[in-house]
Each structure stands twice: as structure tokens, then as C-alpha cells.
Fold DUF4191 domain-containing protein.
Amino acid sequence: MARKETAADAANAGRLKQIALTYKMTRKADKKIGLVLGAVGIGILAVFLAIGFLLGHPVYLGIFGLLIALLATAIVFGRRAERAAFGQMEGQPGAAAAVLDNIGRGWTTTPAVAMNRSQDVVHRAVGKAGIVLVAEGNPNRVKSLLAAEKKKMNRIVADVPVHDVIVGNGEGLVELKKLRTTMLKFPRVLTGPQVTATTDRLRAMGDLMSNMPVPKGPMPKGMRMPKGR
């Protein structure tokens, strides 16, 4: 019993520490987060208390209002924390890959399946929607990368639909914060076994560095070579 209690206490302490860390990170980008959360929580509780006094049940509605206030505060905090996180990630190399890694179950992602010397990059995700190629970098440059990668996909898995997305801000581009939603909107056309078979075929093909020559000349400063799987 003592061990269970210790494990539970450690888990709770870990959650509280994570919440505190998330709050600190969010506050760096959203200075008003504390005021907003306070206003939401206190405002909802005050409304329920006022209704409780009018109806003659301040304690009952006060407790109920406290629970609703905590729930609403958690929802608002989660949304603003997510917005702040995307704001800090936007424009950073590999931001799209980070979003793809957290897209959810049913997707297999492979970062940097194509890259040029300007550090424009294409990532690949495979799920029931088929293959989704996600590019980040200069929109004009990544189009050639996407075209080459789509041609390769059609050659290897011609029976699987291939979608492409360019992450960025502007007409025809998908904002980083909307990438996950965009991915989930693609129609599901493959079964689980078909997804597995497609993933295996692509894995057997290898990634960028295992089947493409390294460009001649000096590498761009800070560029990291992606590892093959």
C-alpha cells in the first residue's frame, strides 16, 4: 500500500510540475495569461454564487460553480498554452515535424525524407488518408522538392493517394497551428493492413540519405543530416 501511495504522490507531483512549467513557458509569450485565467475562474464562480443567492441555494450552486470555473479555466489555459507554443515554434526549422510527431494514433511519420541545401525540407506521414507530404521552407523552392517526392511515391506505391501540404502563412499555405486539423480532414481511404503495408514498403525504400547522393560543395552552416531508418 505504501508503494502505491508513493507512486501516486510522485505522479501528482510530476503533473503539478508539468503544469507549472507549461504556465511559465506560456507566460513568456502571453503576459496576460494570469489575468485571463483569474477573470474566467472568478467571473464564472461569481455568476453561480449570485444565482445561488437568488434561488436560496448559494452553497450548492457555489460548489457547482467552482467545478465549472476550474473546468473552464483549464480549457482556456490549454488553448492559450497551445497558441503560445505554436507561436514560439512557427518559423523554426523542424516545427512541422514536431507537430506531425504528436498528430495522434494511426499515423507513422518520417522527418526529412527530402531536403535541399537551403534547408527546405519535406516530411512524410502515412495513415488511413494515404501518404501526406508536408513541406516547410521557402514556398517557391519546396514545390520542386514536393514534385520530386510525389513522383517517387507514385512510382513505389502507385495505388496509394498522395497529398501535399506546404506549411506557412499566405495564400495556398497551411498555418502551423492548423496542420494537425488539415491532416485529419483528409478522407480515410486505406484500411489498417493497407497502412501497414504502405509503411513497410516505404521503410524498405529508405529515406533521403540512404538512396540519394550527398550534394557536392560545402554544407550549409548548422545543417544536420537526417538519419535513415
Summary: Strands lie at 108-115, 121-127, 130-136, 162-167.
